[in-house]
């Protein structure tokens, strides 16, 4: 299947749902105890889901060429990502081996990184190349004191890594065969960031926040004056890929396809919104002009950060770039901060007051059901393997 065939198949499914007032459904409701938002559960999730598994660190376009770098902070771990002169991506702990000070910030091009505290210097591979006042460090083996290297792999437009030392990452194994083929087909490896990441602080548990992304049942209510004016609420496709998943929503413009034969549809990407959830915490939304990366990062059991980065398709016209520039603040501030994350914050008192024993996901919310079942399966597997609980 090529990209056009995939998009046409999804458009057909959405049009059928719109015609019959249906949507993709789970087999049953899912009821979960509110202790999934407890402090101990948060600590277990941090240990198993964030420190114990590969995570999406960024998209390939964040390191656009040899000699580039980008700093990423996830779940309390500062990372320095580099693309060396041979084009290989490395993930390094962003902590000087002298006293642990953060070595670099931001993104750009560089050959060396110098710690601001005592000017110890490292190259793109993380090797320690200079120690000031070296006469006072007799016996220091510089080869052993490079920046700590962490497992990382690149493929299909993604840079995936671990936040702790561990086994090498096989990105094909991480994604699974169906998703590998699909992401390869979408071909977004050279799409580059529009601007620096926007970090949204959210006064809610990371899973509460994640769940605002994974259904559009709420469009007609929470977003009735915003997203519901140009996208159909309550209509969604759902497809799973192991622990990951794909959703697709219909924009209102898809209505024009009802009366057209398929050979006249042309590019249907302008009529649908393609969204992927990569386990455990990453959402990627595809538009005809850009890709949006949303990384939901736990801070504690009651709060999280959402790191949002938009990547633009190469070759956009000035008019298309201007249209995106006008749309971006509206999405970030009006819709996401003002509605999604606002309502996430209003969830916290309810799930912590002791009045509620459970929360519910309906049959029309198959994607959050799938993710929550995946979280529980990963935690149960860790318990069976004797992995220590989070401290």
Distance linking N and C termini: 46 Å
The biggest sheet, with number of strands, parallel, antiparallel or mixed sense and barrel status, is: 8 strands, antiparallel
Strand tally is 21
Please write the string of helix (H) and strand (E) elements.
HEHEEEEEEEEEEEHHEEHEEEEEEHHEH
* Strand proportion: 25-35%
Mean pLDDT: 96
Q: Helix amount, in percent? A: 25-40%
Poorly predicted runs are none
Counted by DSSP, the helix tally is 8
- Whole-angstrom Rg: 22 Å
Short description:
With 391 residues, the protein is an alpha+beta fold.
Can you describe this structure?
This protein starts with a helix and ends in a 7-residue tail after the last helix. It is α+β, with helices and mostly antiparallel strands and about 400 residues long. Helix 2 packs across helix 8 (about 365-385). Helices cover about 25% and strands about 30% of the residues. The chain is built from eight helices and 21 strands. The strands form five sheets. Strands 13, 14, 15, 16, 17, 18, 19 and 20 form an eight-stranded antiparallel beta sheet that branches.
């Amino acid at each position: 299947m090529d990209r056009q065939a995939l998009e046409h198949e999804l458009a057909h499914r959405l049009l059928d749902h719109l015609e019959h007032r249906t949507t993709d459904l789970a087999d049953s409701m899912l009821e979960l105890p509110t202790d999934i938002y407890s402090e101990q559960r948060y600590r277990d999730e941090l240990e198993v889901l964030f420190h114990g598994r590969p995570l999406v660190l960024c998209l390939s376009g964040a390191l656009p060429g040899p000699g580039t770098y980008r700093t990423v902070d996830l779940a309390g771990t500062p990372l320095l990502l580099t693309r060396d002169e041979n084009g290989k991506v490395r993930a390094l702990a962003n902590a000087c081996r002298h006293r642990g000070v953060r070595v670099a910030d931001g993104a750009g091009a560089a050959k060396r990184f110098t710690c601001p505290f005592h000017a110890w210097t490292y190259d793109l591979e993380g090797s320690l190349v200079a120690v000031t006042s070296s006469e006072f460090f007799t016996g220091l083996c510089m080869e052993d004191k490079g920046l700590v290297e962490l497992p990382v792999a690149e493929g299909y437009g993604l840079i995936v890594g671990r936040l702790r030392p561990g086994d090498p990452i096989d990105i094909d194994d991480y994604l699974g065969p169906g998703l590998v083929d699909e992401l390869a087909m979408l071909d977004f490896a050279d799409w580059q960031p529009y601007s620096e990441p926007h970090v949204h602080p959210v006064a809610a548990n990371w899973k509460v926040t994640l769940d605002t992304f994974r259904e559009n049942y709420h469009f007609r209510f929470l977003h009735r004056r915003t997203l519901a004016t140009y996208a159909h609420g309550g209509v969604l496709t759902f497809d799973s890929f192991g622990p990951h998943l794909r959703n697709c929503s219909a924009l209102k413009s898809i209505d024009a396809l009802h009366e057209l034969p398929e050979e006249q549809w042309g590019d249907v990407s302008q009529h649908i919104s393609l969204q992927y959830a990569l386990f455990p915490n990453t959402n990627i939304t595809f538009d005809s002009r850009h890709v949006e990366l949303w990384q939901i990062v736990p801070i504690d059991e009651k709060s999280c950060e959402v790191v949002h980065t938009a990547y633009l398709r190469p070759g956009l016209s000035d008019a298309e770039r201007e249209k995106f520039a006008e749309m971006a603040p509206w999405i970030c501030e009006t819709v996401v901060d003002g509605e999604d994350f606002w309502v996430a914050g209003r969830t916290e008192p309810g799930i912590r007051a002791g009045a509620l024993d459970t929360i519910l996901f309906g049959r029309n919310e198959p994607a959050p059901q799938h993710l929550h079942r995946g979280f529980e399966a990963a935690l149960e597997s860790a318990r069976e393997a004797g992995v220590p609980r989070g401290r």
